[in-house]
Amino acid sequence: MDGFLSWWDGVELWLSGLGFVLQTVVVMPVVLLIAYGAAVLLDGSLGKVIVLVRWLRGKDRSIR
């Protein structure tokens, strides 16, 4: 764990030393990828929960 934390501190120092525009160019692809992954997971989970709730209420007897 100490090795990872040392690496992360180095990355943080390197990133904070960059200008704002370069920080944005480096950080935005990572943030967008994480946000897209979270959106896909949440969308799939919510879809399954909605199908389950409809089935439990008896409005839709065909579970996909």
Descriptive account of the structure:
This protein is mainly alpha-helical. The chain is built from two helices and no strands. The chain has helices at 2-17, 20-57. The protein is elongated, with a radius of gyration of 21 Å.
Beta strand count: 0
Give the overall average pLDDT.
Answer: 91
Poorly predicted regions are none
Radius of gyration over alpha carbons? 21 Å
The class by helix and strand makeup works out as mainly alpha
Overall geometry comes to: elongated
Give the number of helices. 2
Measure the end-to-end span: 43 Å
Order of helices and strands: HH
Organism: Mycolicibacterium komossense
Protein name: TMhelix containing protein
Keywords: Membrane, Transmembrane, Transmembrane helix
Give a short overview.
With 64 residues, the protein is an all-alpha fold. The chain contains 2 helices and no strands.
Topology:
Layout: H1 2-17, H2 20-57
Could you list some keywords that capture this structure?
64 residues; mainly alpha; 84% helix; elongated; TMhelix containing protein; transmembrane helix; transmembrane; membrane
